Amino acid sequence: MELKEAWVQEDRVFDNPLLKITLNGLKYYGILLYRSQRFKKLHCFRGVFFTTTLLLFNLTQYVDLVRVWGNVSEMTANAATTLLFTTIVVRIFHFYINRAKFNTAIRHADEGIRRIMDHGNLVEKAFLWGNVNYMNRLTAAFWICALVTANTMCVFSLVQYLTADVSDTVGIGNSTQLDSSVLILRSWYPAENLMDHYVTIYTIQLYIIYVGQLIVPCWHVFMVSLMVYVRTALMILNYKLSHLERYEPSGVRSGCVRRSAPKDLALEKNDRRRELMVECIQEQRRIFKFTLELESLTGGAVFMDFVVFSVLLCALLFEASVTDSSVQIFIDICYIMTMSAILFLYYWHANEIHFQANLLSKSAFMSDWFVYPRSVNRHLLTFICCSIKPWKMKAVIVPMSLDTFIAILRASYSYFTILKQSAG
User: Fold this and answer.
1) Which has more confidence, 208 or 318?
2) Distance CA 422, CA 32 (A)
3) Taking CA 392 as the corner, what is the angle to CA 386 and CA 393, rounded to the nearest 5 degrees?
4) Which of 232, 252, 278, 239 is nearest to 367 (CA)?
5) Are the C-beta atoms of 368 and 266 separated by less than 8 Å?
6) How far apart are CA 120 and CA 363, in angstroms?
7) For residue range 10-43, what is the model confidence (pLDDT) as tens digits?
8) In this model, does residue 172 exceed pLDDT 70?
9) Lowest-pLDDT choice from 87-101, 133-147, 177-191, 284-298
């Protein structure tokens, strides 16, 4: 396999304070490479191997779904993980297909963050580091939720196997379904009695679970970190627009450094304000262009989540309602929290981008525009007119907002009540 230059990131990107945790996770998975990395093809092969095994395992889950078709309880137990693994595989293939675009987006985000770190004032750096700390806390919380869910499933399966009575699982006519409930995940395995091959099946599924634990949190937090960068850039732009006078050189603001004539000083102030407005317009265009690119990279996957996660959450609710095991109920609750968190992360931060973008025109109006000459106010008016248009991220045709998130939860509960009534 020939590695294109567009696929490789600069080493410094992996030290970016906002992106480094998630980028290093993608690097360990093997789908993101850095320039000085040795054995690049070997690391790329690792990513391909992980993805191929995930795909093959997901296919066995669909085989199992066909085998239990018609049994509502078994189908929902299967769908709870089958749909999640499907979204993972689709996202990874989407990354491979659009790898150059993803890497370009990462570089643009890195350049924007470093521009703030190198040239921003104290307030701008405070905005940046506040969002970095926020992103670190968010990452830790999501990782904990995902790890607790996956590892509890693994431990519970092993405990069930070690404490199971052989007479309960062998020699009964419907033994295959009983055996499957002891495994970590529902999937097809070519054997009559699964308990005779439990160690092999458990090892395979344990491997799949840990690969999933690596890629699921890393991928979703990676995409959210790019959205947090957009929010940070918009927050800084809002501050700059409403405090343009603070960006004028001290000598221009007070006139104490240079003894210029009042007319010359006024011309210098107007020139500087005009430059600041042009900078703000250019920054707005950069942010808008980056947001459109980010929307094009995330829209399809988030739309798939919009369609799939309602069914997935419905399956988890149904599974939790029919089981008698308190541990299984705990696993289902953790699973529901993790899936809901994935949706919430996307829709909440898209809503934040929309909110900050809508503040731009108001922030521009809050500046001391009334003392600017017409030449400066023309730029200001142009900026306000460009900022009035609603600025919303979309998942293909679905607007990404908290209203959409709530609609998904309502749909999931509606599906659950219908399924519960039909099964009961």
Assistant:
1) 208
2) 46
3) 130
4) 239
5) no
6) 19
7) 778 888 888 888 888 888 898 888 777 788 888 8
8) no
9) 177-191
What digits encode the pLDDT tens for the residues 218-270?
Answer: 999 999 999 999 999 999 999 988 887 777 665 444 444 444 445 555 666 67
Could you tell me the two tokens for 246? 């603070």
| CA 376, 379, 385, 386 torsion-angle sign | negative
Confidence of residue 358 (pLDDT cuts 50, 70, 90): confident
C-beta of residue 26 within 8 angstroms of C-beta of residue 32: yes
Question: N- to C-terminal Cα distance for the chain?
Answer: 54
Q: How far apart are CA 103 and CA 407, in angstroms?
A: 33
Distance, in Å, from the CA atom of 412 to the CA atom of 398, rounded to the nearest integer, reads 17
Query: Would you state the structure tokens that stand for residue 32, as one six-digit string?
Result: 């993101």
Binning the chain into helix, strand and coil, the percentages to the nearest 5 are 80, 0, 15
Query: Is residue 392 pLDDT above 60, yes or no?
Result: yes
- The larger pLDDT score, comparing residue 163 to residue 271, is at 163
Model confidence, pTM: 0.87
Element (H, E) at 394: strand 394-395
Give me the sign of the Cα torsion angle 297, 300, 306, 311: negative
What are the structure tokens assigned to 406, written together?
């709530």
Q: At 268, give phi and psi (nearest 5°).
A: -65, -40
Confidence at residue 262, expressed as pLDDT on a 0 to 100 scale:
55
User: Hey, which residues does 34 pair with through a beta bridge?
Assistant: 9
322/27 Cα distance (integer angstroms): 40
Parallel, antiparallel, or unpaired for β 398-399 and 394-395? antiparallel
Q: Tokens 């304070």 — which residue?
A: 17
Cα(114)–Cα(24) distance, integer angstroms:
18
| Chain center to CA of 340 | 12
Separation between Cα atoms, residue 237 and residue 244, nearest integer Å: 10
Question: Measured between alpha carbons, how far is 386 from 169 in angstroms, rounded to an integer?
Answer: 68
Closest CA to 290 of 424, 156, 105: 105
Distances (CA, A) of 400 to 213, 222, 299, 308: 26, 18, 9, 16
